[in-house]
Amino acid sequence: MLGKVTATTVATQTIEGANGVCYAYRRFGNASDVPLVLFQHFTGTLDFWDPALLDALAAEREIIIFNNTGVASTSGTTPSTVQQMARDALTFIDALTLNKIDVLGFSLGGFIAQDIALLRPHLVRRLILAGTAPQGGPGLHGWRQDIYDATHADNPGAGTLLYIMFKQTPTSQAKGNEYLGRFMERKDRDAPGTLATRDAQYDAVVEWGIPDHNKLARLAAITQPTFVANGDADYMCPTRLTHLMGGLIPNAQVKIYPDAGHGFLWQHHGEFAADVNAFLAS
């Protein structure tokens, strides 16, 4: 008898979009009318999702993770704007003939998720914005020097991931090391990301963060029920902007997870998954 499909055993599939891009994705979980599509963070690939988080989400619904245009095992050239990334993601969703989805966007993926909800309001049923920020938000125009240096190392290692994703406390760093162990469990691994993708994505991050209070008004058009979450010490997408989004999105609820940085959803994977599943089921 075949074993249960998990985040570390699910096969990688590909599908060609109308733009000619061949998208790599993984799809598994408990069958549900509305799948949950996850949008990945800066330079992340299929393998950067925490398997424990994915398995906890998949226990209650079907989930889909994918590499957007030019990322790792997906073909094409990574665009340098969030707007084009969102349109490319919609091409992938259209290729799968999905008419209604829930969306979880993490970090840069949360930028894209906001645009998806605004461009196709009838496509998105519910929205989760994790460790992300609104376009034009104050204090978002590029990352502070230490974070920039860490994320732009040509060969970042485990220490880099621990530094930028987890709070500088013994407890958070210990949880980071646990995540690294789970991160390495999959044997059939995705292709690595490239420096070209990193640079294009950072251009998109910087443009998104150009200060513009008028852009914040866009959030009023996100009418879907929205769960906005972060760690209490996010240095990439400052936690204060999580509260700002929660106040500007009409139907939003906010949760801040303690002793955690940008990677709070890996550190608190069990609690976050339970919160997401409850939010999507409510």
TrEMBL record:
Family matches, as InterPro entries: AB_hydrolase (IPR050471), AB_hydrolase_1 (IPR000073), AB_hydrolase_fold (IPR029058)
Domain AB hydrolase-1: 35-268
SUPFAM superfamilies assigned: alpha/beta-Hydrolases (SSF53474)
Residue stretches in coiled coil: none
Pfam family, one: Abhydrolase_1
Name this protein carries in UniProt: Pimeloyl-ACP methyl ester carboxylesterase
